[in-house]
Amino acid sequence: MNIFEKKKRVKKMPPLNEQQLDQNREERREQIKKAALKVFTKRGIIGTKISMIAKEAGISQGLTYRYYHSKDELFIELVKDAMEETAEAFASLENMSSSPLEKIKELTKKMLDTSNKHSFMLIQQVQTSDEVPDKAKEIVRQYPIPSFIEQLIPVFKKGQEMGEFCKGDPAKLLMLYFSVISGLMLLPNKDEEDQALDVDILMKLIRE
Amino acid sequence: MNIFEKKKRVKKMPPLNEQQLDQNREERREQIKKAALKVFTKRGIIGTKISMIAKEAGISQGLTYRYYHSKDELFIELVKDAMEETAEAFASLENMSSSPLEKIKELTKKMLDTSNKHSFMLIQQVQTSDEVPDKAKEIVRQYPIPSFIEQLIPVFKKGQEMGEFCKGDPAKLLMLYFSVISGLMLLPNKDEEDQALDVDILMKLIRE
Amino acid sequence: MNIFEKKKRVKKMPPLNEQQLDQNREERREQIKKAALKVFTKRGIIGTKISMIAKEAGISQGLTYRYYHSKDELFIELVKDAMEETAEAFASLENMSSSPLEKIKELTKKMLDTSNKHSFMLIQQVQTSDEVPDKAKEIVRQYPIPSFIEQLIPVFKKGQEMGEFCKGDPAKLLMLYFSVISGLMLLPNKDEEDQALDVDILMKLIRE
Amino acid sequence: MNIFEKKKRVKKMPPLNEQQLDQNREERREQIKKAALKVFTKRGIIGTKISMIAKEAGISQGLTYRYYHSKDELFIELVKDAMEETAEAFASLENMSSSPLEKIKELTKKMLDTSNKHSFMLIQQVQTSDEVPDKAKEIVRQYPIPSFIEQLIPVFKKGQEMGEFCKGDPAKLLMLYFSVISGLMLLPNKDEEDQALDVDILMKLIRE
DNA sequence: AATGAATGAGATTTCATTCAT
DNA sequence: GATGAATGAAATCTCATTCAT
User: Which of the four CATH numbers 3.30.70.870, 3.30.470.20, 2.130.10.10, 1.10.10.60 does domain B16-69 have?
Assistant: First the structure.
């Protein structure tokens, strides 16, 4: 660092550079979010005590508040993330070159996959429960699940034409299908291998 | 209670006769249970405040404690009832003269019917949540849902032989099927008429 | 109570009549407000712990929350009351038949009187401190003290004409005078008898 | 510190010489004190968070503790300083050659001057509030304000003889006068120019 | 029996102080 | 020395349960 660079730093001389600090901070936030998502989905927003999240994240209660002002704020952040992921999951189907049936199957697997499930469950919680903050409700309302499902209607219709899917009102069939998936997500875990099988059986609901 | 039993209790002369009092008491308990079931299933045991139950039942907070010593006790009582009803629902199939497929269909309707749903949802809650009292967990463990489902295996096998049901491991198929039903119960209400349709589509999961 | 009256009561049969309950409730609120006013003026809103108010009122911490949802709400209610009292104190001068000088003197006495002082001090606190809730600031801003003082300008002018008050800009003189009074209120108590004397000396500020 | 003392400390060879270090340290302490005084007087000791002082001083929270072991210690140090300044302000009158009235007027100006006001306000806070550390209370008790005022009694008497001051008990008149000044200090700022005028009006309290 | 008030244990949140870097 | 993170004790607030009427 030459003397000119030195002058840039107006305020003070922190021991670590700001970029490093920001990154640490971001990592902590992720650590907390990960822990929180796990506990929130397992116990609901009211059943979740901040102390549980802190313990799960391996930090003190107080520290949680340096990163999130309140339990609600943390919850809301997670809901935002979950909505984004969901939107992406649905949107990503467009770019797939596979058949309609394969697309739906892929999406189903993604939703039931343990690593993604938590996000979907969180959204379920927001839709189902009265305990969640209004802000969270709003966010989910802004991007309603039905609208995601509607995106699939063209795919489904094409599948019907190709004879992959059964006849019937695409909107209604898809809605029921995803209700079933949603419901399954709320149930306690199953073994991974079983899951793989399940998907094929589930597809019977919409297959010809 | 016969008239001889009645004479046994003679503490004092109440304004109403004992039988009447007992009946009143029982009615109150039912009134409270009904209210509690509604709120518990909607908000979970932690999300439910005693004040909410009291309000729903149209009585005062304090009075609730005349009939149930604690929130947990009330919850446990409801779980007991729910288990009994569930057991009955499954057992009653034996006496039905209809075909295997019709039996399963009937059971499905019963489970998804708004008036019964609450009991099933309560059991779900016990299985899913960590917040419920240990005693409740125990009760549900004593009569595990899988054992109910096992009762249906003979019925299912018969249906397979008759060509009503698809091929495959009956235990596994039934388990998935009822997982789907359970999951659907957890979702917010749908219109009654749609429900009627849904059942037929759901049956595709196990039908030939 | 005759049978017709009995029918009026739609809901239930409470042991005490509603009027009595409402009155009790109101008394409790007053009791809490009185205690709170004392502690708030002595220690400021932040320095005041709910436990102090509860102790001063002789009730449990928890009970406080049955009457006021938060410390802030309680504070705001007190500010409202104080503003009303202040407005009244100034307004009441109009109806007095005494001379301008006597009017100001009376007002001064009222403000410095121990029994009223707390209300004025509370308003001071709102104006001086950054810790008070925004709502409280708003309320005080709605009826600004200067506007109260302006009401006195005609009185003061008349006093000047009568030779009771010194020459000079009435607005400026009154503002200074009441600044002095306000300041004095913030200081720890003096003996009652001294106070009586003080007023006459203070009047020198505006007397001819 | 003389040059001999300097040689006594020879632990290691610091990049800067000891004197320089000490001076830096002293400057930092002053920087912190200045910031603290500003915030303490504005928000009270409880309303003041260490983070606020650090921010005002432009340093980190943690660093504050390198210079002061606790918030209380910092507060106490400020109170000491304030008492010394006050003592000096009163003492300095002795050396003035002006008339008694001019002396009091000068003192008044000094007290209401924005740059000095903070110290006086701090002392007020110690006298008024229950939140301050006991040590601070003690320090102020050791040099009671009344004793400062008593120092002025000879001056006041001389002024009375000279016909500059009004008749009456000097102790009582001075006490009221400084109560008024103290009170005024607690009020939010006024414009500088108004202040100048105010002093003359205030003097009416004690002038003939 | 019935009510609503009252309590107190436990949860959330704040912040002075300590710690690792 | 300097920083910002981390801790934990104390405050606010909630609510299951008990109590007086």
Answer: 1.10.10.60
